[in-house]
Amino acid sequence: MTIIARRALVAALTAAVLLPPAAAIADGGTPGLGGAPTTPDTTSSGGTGLSGPTGASTAPVISSAACAVQGERCHHGDMLTMTGTDLESVRRVVFVGRSGHRDARSAKPIAETDGSLSVLVPAHARSGPVRALAANGSSPAGTITIVAGPPSAPSPAGPGRSVSAAGVFPIGGPHTFGLAATNRFGGRRGHQGQDVFATCGTLLVSARAGTVTQATFEARAGNYVVITDTTGESEVYMHMRAPAIVAPGSTVAAGEPIGAVGDTGDAQGCHLHFELWTAPGWYRGGHPIDPLAALRAWDRHGGRLVHLRS
Ligand SMILES: [Zn+2]
């Protein structure tokens, strides 16, 4: 199918498949766009020179959607990852379900870049079609089957292993290590971590299992999260695009989504500023150590849990 034919189909489907009214969309409590998608922004057709003739008005097109473990079979709470084009315009994902609008559920993406999007399957979502909604259109995103059981645990640390030694690379997409002195640990006064550059909106996951001990905003750090494991070691994630999706006091597994790469606070370019602290943890008496070796080791394993020798 050509792109044009595909877009025409998407437009036709958008018109044919009635979008759930806002009132029918339960949402796990995430504030967001409460209403139905707005009509396409016709004022953008004149072109401002900023985004080009197709920039702002291109509707998202989904080419694949799958849950991590079983593809189109998902549990509530699983992460559904989509690929396609123009996905950063997606504001909500609707799990249409099967009986009209009544069982439709929607969720705001955790992370989205032009080419990929991550969303958690909301509680009470039913098996059925999924649609990605943007202000300027929507795209079908396949059909999922909800299977019973708890969310597919993202790589829990195995029994008998040191939790603190097990980790997953925290950025779920293309990235580049900042190797300039200012991006390295200790490279400039007060730089206590390693910068890793990635497109704003790229998924961030917890590198290690632990408890969320901070999740807040600070002028220099921007939106940031501190996760502390049972040994008291902690890791810190700064400059996140939006407040973390995990709350202080909650426990996270290694590989569990926590938010998205951003440039909030004192950040030059979209990047993760990552710190590792010895026990008893971040500003609790521990001290920062150079995390680059750990990050590289996790990175070599492509998102799978890695047990580092300590
Ligand atoms: Zn930094």
Topology (elements, then pairings):
Elements: H1 3-16, E1 61-67, E2 73-74, E3 79-85, E4 90-95, E5 105-107, E6 111-112, E7 116-120, E8 128-134, E9 137-146, E10 166-167, E11 176-177, E12 194-197, E13 203-205, E14 210-218, E15 222-228, E16 234-240, E17 251-252, E18 257-260, E19 271-277, E20 288-289, H2 292-300, E21 306-307
Parallel strand pairs: 2-9
Antiparallel strand pairs: 1-3, 3-7, 4-5, 4-8, 6-7, 8-9, 10-21, 11-12, 12-19, 13-18, 14-15, 14-17, 15-16, 16-19, 19-20
Question: What does this protein look like?
Answer:
By secondary structure, the chain is mainly beta. It has two domains: 108 residues, Immunoglobulin-like (Sandwich), CATH 2.60.40; 145 residues, Glucose Permease (Domain IIA). 7% of the residues lie in helices and 32% in strands. It contains two helices and 21 strands. The strands form five sheets. Strands 11, 12, 14, 15, 16, 17, 19 and 20 form an eight-stranded antiparallel beta sheet that branches. A five-stranded mixed beta sheet has the order 2-9-8-4-5. A hairpin with a 5-residue loop joins strand 15 and strand 16. It is globular, with a radius of gyration of 20 Å. It starts with a helix and ends with a strand. The N terminus is likely disordered. The protein binds zinc ion. The site of zinc ion (ZN) has 4 residues, from loops. Zinc ion binds next to loops.
